[in-house]
Specification:
- The structure holds two protein chains of two kinds.
- By secondary structure, chain A is mainly β.
- Chain A has a single domain (about 5-110), classed as Immunoglobulins (Immunoglobulin-like).
- Helices cover about 0% and strands about 55% of the residues of chain A.
- Chain A has no helices and eleven strands.
- In chain A, strands 2, 4, 5, 9, 10 and 11 form a six-stranded mixed beta sheet that branches. In chain A, strands 1-3-8-7-6 form a five-stranded antiparallel beta sheet, with no helix packed on it.
- Chain A is globular.
- Chain B is mainly beta.
- Chain B has one domain (about 5-110): Immunoglobulins (Immunoglobulin-like).
- Chain B has strands at about 5, 10-15, 20-25, 30-35, 45-50, 55, 65, 75-80, 85-95, 100-105, 105-110.
- In chain B, the strands form two sheets. In chain B, strands 2, 4, 5, 6, 9, 10 and 11 form a seven-stranded mixed beta sheet that branches.
- The termini of chain B are far apart.
- The chains are: A mainly beta, B mainly beta.
- The interface of A and B includes residues 4 and 99 of A.
Chain lengths: ~110, ~110
């Protein structure tokens, strides 16, 4: 059974600090996605990672993918309150169907 | 573009009632998906479709049915609602490019 695990599940951090969220998955895949979800809202696409070694950056967030280690990271640099949300990674499991398996989510709270 | 439209946004059902959650997209996407998100959890795939007339089960299909008579619409039917179906339901779609899913705004369903 394919599993996608994120850690930590909860993260409370101070503004201006750096931190990393980890996404481990248990099957071969070279397509991984990061989403942000605000409370009571839908999911917003952050990053699309489509090959080993892919790195994408947007503002204070940077995502990377290591398909050999089956690991993706979401790095937060100099956190600000506006980044408080839940972050999900999702692994694309099958070519031709594009079914995603989602991680459990990391609830991030940035304290002012 | 409207993107992915889900209706209703909120619904309360009594045990044993049935209902249909509507999902429509105007992006001519072939691939459509229904996920459910239980409180504090990630998303679980209920059903998916790779094109009009083609549907298949995901991880948690029991208690649900779908149809896909047109490219645009992908309704989810709940028969004999149970409290375990209390959840937020998200519809998503994508094409065959690398941009990933577009999500609808969700339907919050409570079964009492």
């Amino acid at each position: 059974e394919l599993k996608v695990e994120q850690n930590p599940l909860f993260l409370s951090m101070q503004e201006e600090k750096n931190y990393t969220i980890y996404c481990n998955y248990s099957t071969t895949s070279d397509r991984l996605y990061w989403y942000r979800q605000d409370p009571g809202k839908s999911l917003e696409s952050l990053f699309v990672l489509l090959s080993n070694g892919a790195v994408k950056q947007e503002g204070r967030l940077m995502a990377s993918l290591d398909t050999k280690a089956r690991l993706s990271t979401l790095h937060i640099t100099a956190a600000v309150h506006d980044l408080s949300a839940t972050y999900f990674c999702a692994v694309d499991t099958e070519s031709g169907t594009y079914k995603y398996i989602f991680g459990t989510g990391t609830r991030l709270k940035v304290l002012a | 573009n409207a993107g992915v439209t889900q209706t209703p946004k909120f619904r309360i059902l009594k045990i044993g009632q049935s209902m249909t959650l509507q999902c429509a997209q105007d992006m001519n996407h072939n691939y459509m998906y229904w996920y459910r998100q239980d409180p504090g959890m990630g998303l679980k795939l209920i059903y998916y479709s790779v094109g009009a007339g083609i549907t298949d089960k995901g991880e948690v299909p029991n208690g649900y049915n779908v149809s896909r008579s047109t490219t645009e619409d992908f309704p989810l039917r709940l028969e004999l609602a149970a409290p375990s179906q209390t959840s937020v339901y998200f519809c998503a779609s994508r094409d065959g490019s690398n941009y990933g899913y577009t999500f609808g705004s969700g339907t919050r369903l409570t079964v009492v």
